[in-house]
Specification:
By secondary structure, this protein is α/β, with parallel strands linked by helices. It has 3 domains: about 5-85, Winged helix-like DNA-binding domain superfamily/Winged helix DNA-binding domain (Arc Repressor Mutant, subunit A), CATH 1.10.10.10; about 95-170 and about 275-300, Periplasmic binding protein-like II (D-Maltodextrin-Binding Protein, domain 2), CATH 3.40.190.10; about 170-275, D-Maltodextrin-Binding Protein, domain 2 (3-Layer(aba) Sandwich). Helices cover about 40% and strands about 20% of the residues. It has 11 helices and 12 strands. The chain has helices spanning about 5-15, 20-25, 30-45, 60-85, 100-105, 105-115, 130-135, 205-215, 230-240, 255-260, 285-295, and strands at about 50, 55, 95, 120-125, 145-150, 160-175, 195-200, 225-230, 245-250, 265, 270-280, 300. The strands form 3 sheets. Strands 3, 4, 5, 6, 9, 10, 11 and 12 form an 8-stranded mixed β-sheet that branches. Strands 1-2 form a two-stranded antiparallel ribbon. Helix 1 packs across helix 3, helix 1 crosses helix 4 (about 60-85) and helix 2 crosses helix 3. The longest helix has 27 residues, at about 60-85.
Length: about 300
């Protein structure tokens, strides 16, 4: 039996829908269904009545639900306690963030925080968006630093998680300038000459927002995707080599836009407002993490998509 099967079970209890739970668990519906079936085989009883819409728990499922909740709670608590007495200090504040924010936002932000406080013991786990979400859900980090936008679905229940706004940013299309300083690749392009476009992989949160903009303007934008990466830093480097345009966070482009090494590839119609938020569990955190949370200005919110 795998602990993720219990997480899958409780997700399905919450949504009563296989496709929504599969999306929330960042997997395909067939894979999610197989894991639920594996759990039922391990338990030795059918846990869900699939004949009803929405699906409902069987009597066996109702009896199993508090057991699953208790087992997961004990696992998470045991993991946290083991970390506290292990090689990770109980005073260490643990963050999770995507590669882009880890490189371009976190160091400067931490420095600014420490001007108002003593130097903190911190740990930053850097990974792809979906992995960072799961670190927070499993209690393996205290804070998730992430881009938020209505088009980025995180499936974090507002009654279990809360957030504070850290930065208002926007995604801007940029490209290498030509010899006269004009954009080498200019939006919106044309059917005869589509613009070379450097895209994010499907695991990228901000990539989903960009793809939404493109889909909403399918009749106006003429793009040819020539490269894909989940890292904004890679897309920026490729754009600087003249490989095409990329939508990048404006906060990461201060030097490039000021020096003219990269220029905007279109007007404000093609810019996408996004925010950077720090998200945490509503459960009590270690003293140092709670002290950091108290230092952050602004009200708490749940406006993360």
């Amino acid at each position: 039996m795998e602990s993720r099967w219990l997480e899958d079970f409780l997700s399905l209890v919450d949504t009563r829908n296989f496709s929504r739970s599969a999306e929330a668990r960042y997997t395909t519906q067939p894979a999610f269904s197989r894991r639920i079936k594996s759990l039922e085989e391990w338990v030795g009883a059918q846990l869900f009545n699939r004949a009803t819409q929405p699906i409902t728990l069987t009597l066996a499922g109702e009896r199993f639900r508090p057991v699953a909740e208790d087992v997961l709670r004990r696992l998470y608590q045991g993991s946290e306690e083991a970390r506290r007495v292990g090689d990770i200090s109980a005073n260490t504040i643990r963050f999770a963030a995507t590669h882009s924010l880890s490189l371009n936002f976190f160091p400067g932000w931490l420095r600014s925080i420490e001007t108002r406080s003593q130097t903190m013991n911190t740990r930053l786990d850097t990974s792809q968006f979906t992995d960072c979400i799961q670190l927070l859900q499993r209690g393996e980090c205290h804070f998730l630093i992430t881009y938020t936008h209505p088009g980025i679905q995180m499936h974090l229940a507002p009654d279990h998680f809360t957030a504070k706004l850290m930065l208002r940013d926007k995604l801007v299309p940029v490209t290498l300038p030509d010899s006269s300083g004009q954009p080498l690749d200019r939006l919106p392009g044309s059917t005869e000459e589509p613009v070379h476009y450097l895209g994010y992989s499907e695991t990228s949160a901000i990539g989903r927002v960009v793809e939404q903009l493109i889909a909403e303007n399918a009749g106006m934008l003429h793009l040819q995707r020539v490269f894909v990466s989940h890292m904004a830093a890679v897309l920026k480097a490729m754009s600087a080599e003249g490989r095409g345009l990329a939508w990048l966070p404006e906060s990461h482009l201060t030097h490039e836009l000021a020096s003219g090494t990269l220029v905007r590839a279109g007007d404000v119609r093609w810019e996408i407002p996004v925010d950077v938020r720090m998200i945490r569990s509503r459960d009590p955190l270690p003293e140092g993490s709670e002290a950091l949370w108290a230092l952050l200005s602004g009200p708490e919110d749940t406006a993360w998509g």
